[in-house]
Amino acid sequence: MGCACNKRKKKFEVVLEGGKVVFTHSIESTANTVAKRYPGSTVREQPPATVTAKTPAAKTL
Asked: Which three-class secondary structure string do you get for the chain?
């Protein structure tokens, strides 16, 4: 079974005014430092990944 170490780890994104994510990191202070390079950018916590339901594969005859 695989490791779930990163499952609970927070990630932070540097986001430009238009909503484009330009940088992602697990340490908030690093994201804040990078955000200083982009005027008007903000740092936010990355939303958790959503799990989508898998559709069954089509059967071939």
From this structure: CCCCHHHHCCCEEEECCCCCEEEEECCHHHHHHHHCCCCCCEEEECCCCCCCCCCCCCCCC
